[in-house]
Amino acid sequence: MNTTAEQIHLVRRTPTYWRITFDNPPLNVMGPKFVKEFREIITALENDEDVRVVVFDSAVDGFFLNHSDFNAKLEDLTSIPQGPTGLEAWPDILVRLTRAPVVSIALIRGRATGNGSEIALACDMSFASREHAVLSQWEVGVGLVAGGGPMARLPRLMGRGRGLEILLGSEDIRGDLAEAYGYVNRSLPDSELDAFVDALASRIASFDKWAISNTKRLVNAAALPPDVEITAGWDACMSSIARPAAQNRLKAFFELGFHRPGDAEDRMGSYLPQLGR
Predict the structure, then answer these.
(1) At what angle do helices 150-158 and 160-169 cross, to 10 degrees?
(2) Are the C-beta atoms of residues 277 and 256 closer than 8 Å to each other?
(3) Radius of gyration of the chain (CA)
(4) What pLDDT does residue 71 have?
(5) 16, 59, 211, 230: which has the fewest C-beta neighbours closer than 10 Å?
(6) Apex CA 95: angle with CA 30 and CA 101, to 5°?
């Protein structure tokens, strides 16, 4: 795991169009350092007068953004102060991203599991590689409850039944099915993904920021879950981590290769049913 270098890179392609790249090889997991860096970027997005569009992508082959870093100390995450929303650090970041007066776009190539899925759901739009994107909320498969708000967001995107299928099935969802379910806006051939997202981002970045931010504000008023639902999910997540059932399943998963480069991380969904045996 990358412990010293920046795990998130910000490039201002133009004053109005930013790219933010996740870079924590080999698995692009999310730990306390990542959360602190991300919080600084969200603050910059909120306070910059010119930026209108931000695209999130990855520098790590095979991983957009992965699950939490289970080798990190939990208290290093939970001790990060609450954010301006009054929510804990991670859900605060996601809620602020959704409310920021800029357009956020997830460019998903590789695995977006747990935290990566939660970022995609918090973004205003998401576009996936048809061949290489994998989305999932894996938490129930190891006896956990997700902490970044997917229980509140998924049913609003795709309906209750499909939202429950994603959450309770804990299965890997490929690009075409993600598009069909409304998990992402579109899946595109991998060779076309970058050009499509760049063209859309550049187009929106050329428009008036007041019109962009106010249109987004009004859509948010009609579509976003209340903060109390996000808080309930985080509280349930924190309670679930210490449960013996969850600890036993995580231990079994580590023994199968979890948290190391290899098949268990590449095909996570196929491994989860083995953990309760």
Answers:
(1) 130
(2) no
(3) 18
(4) 96
(5) 211
(6) 115
For residue 1, being part of any structural domain is answered with: no
Cis peptide before 101 (omega within 30 of 0): no
* 3-state SS, residue 89: helix
The one-letter amino acid code at 272 reads L
Q: What is the number of domains present in the chain?
A: 1
Answer yes or no: is 105 within a domain. Answer: yes
Give the tens place of pLDDT for each residue, 233-266: 999 999 999 999 999 999 999 999 999 999 999 9
Classify residue 2: in a domain, yes or no: no
Element spanning 201, H or E = helix 190-205
Q: Please, which residues bridge with residue 11 across strands?
A: 19
- Taking the C-alpha atoms of residue 149 and residue 238, their distance in angstroms, rounded to an integer, is 13
Distance CA 142, CA 274 (A): 10
Rounded Cα distance between 93 and 71, Å, is: 22
The length of the chain in residues reads: 277
| CATH code of the domain containing 47 | 3.90.226.10
CA distance 220 to 154: 15
pLDDT for residue 4: 56
pLDDT, average across residues 18-31: 98
Report whether pLDDT(2) > 70.
no
Quick one: what percent of the chain has pLDDT higher than 90?
A: 97
Residue 196 lies in a domain: yes
DSSP string, 52-79: -EEEEEESSTTEEE-SB-TTS-HHHHHT
Query: What does pTM read for this prediction?
Result: 0.96
One-letter amino acid identity for 31?
G
- Average pLDDT (139-159) is 98
Name every residue whose Cβ is closer than 8 Å to that of residue 164 and which is 6 or more positions away in sequence: 155
Instruction: Please give the structure tokens belonging to residue 243.
Output: 């449960």
Residue 268 is part of which domain span?
A: 8-276
Question: Coil, strand or helix: which one is 40?
Answer: helix
